[in-house]
Design goal:
This protein is of the alpha/beta class and about 425 residues long. It has helices spanning about 25-35, 45-50, 70-75, 95-115, 135-145, 165-180, 195-210, 230-240, 255-265, 270-280, 290-295, 300-315, 360-365, 380-390; strands spanning about 15, 40, 60-65, 80-85, 120-125, 155-160, 160, 180-185, 190, 195, 215-220, 225, 245-250, 410, 415.
Amino acid sequence: MFSVEVKRDSDKPVLVAGSTGYVGGRLVPRLLEAGHRVRALGRSLDKLRCRPWASDPNVELARGDVLDQDSLESAAAGCRAVFYLVHSMKAAKKGYAAADRQAAQNMVTAAAAGGVERIIYLGGLGDETDSLSDHLRSRAEVGRILTSGPVPTTYLRAAMILGAGSASFELLRYLADRLPMMITPRWVRTRVQPIAIANVLGYLIGCLENEATTGRTLDIGGPDVVSYAELFQMYARLAGLRRRWIIPVPFFSPRLSSYWIHLVTPLPASMARPLAEGLRNTVVVGDDAVTRLVPQKLIGCQEAISRALERVRQQSVETCWMDAGRLMPPEWPYCDDAPYSGGTVYETGWRVRLQAEAEDVWAVLTRLGGRHGWHSTQAWWRLRGMADRLVGGVGLRRGRRDQNEVLVGDAVDFWRVLR
């Protein structure tokens, strides 16, 4: 007997665009477990290096931005497939749909130039009618752009993703936890087919490994079709809460709903609004072909919520909705006045010497914020959080991903770790 090592296309890496986001951050380690080489794309190498999988020998870290054509082409060169997990939910930022459109077009060009064989895109469910929300319409437009390019694209359409740290689950959790009685819009009766994050990851990897999914648009969902009201009651029961009183009223507009969600949950107004608008649309799987192409055990809503709650209790949330986002440096590192300063020079310098070992100081610093709070002037911090909420920010409710560990890109209340 003898064996011959053959160089195959599978030796080429798989590019994950959006590798520091909620889904991408979980997809990378599972691709590695399945034996794939991965090229993780992100706007900050510091943020990428802090991921638990960054030191794996089968991972390449690539700095790039989907709105920067040159960096995207460099990242895609030599990859056999691309997972496109990038989208914007910043409704407050005008032109987000145009930015998503441009990013998708850049990806089509980069994939073709880099010899990529396949693109796999995770979008949203929803029939394109006049009532479809702007956010879901933008997700569908990205799907059309990718599928119309020269590189064959698998377009997966998902509804609500249930998993610890997902924006949809956190919205469900905070509303049910904090409101024993809810006066809700009519969307509380909307039918939805949620899917567990574990099944989403299973479908993504399964599509990569099954050529029969190439060039297809596939709806993915869990085994249950429920209303949002039923989800609230299901969550309350599993979390050990009393049954919630839910009173739908006809005069709640999506805009009013977004303000209400923003006030009660840690989601910023810019994210609450597209989520609220999307809740009015029925999102149910129309074609279950994917269940035959990529068979797996589908997790029901009860089990998905139970798993997510256990993760939250154990403080072992792998990725969170707040992980994604650009790292914006503060103004003070720059050697110039801010544009709004009017030329006024402000100069200051501070130095504090502590009689302690660096490791001991660091252990205290990395526990700041979240449940542990801040060590002094707590009333002022609460006032700062209230002011942040009033202007559409997250305030103190966002907390932290982990109460003891801090990584580059992590959110700490209304701050974000830069380095």
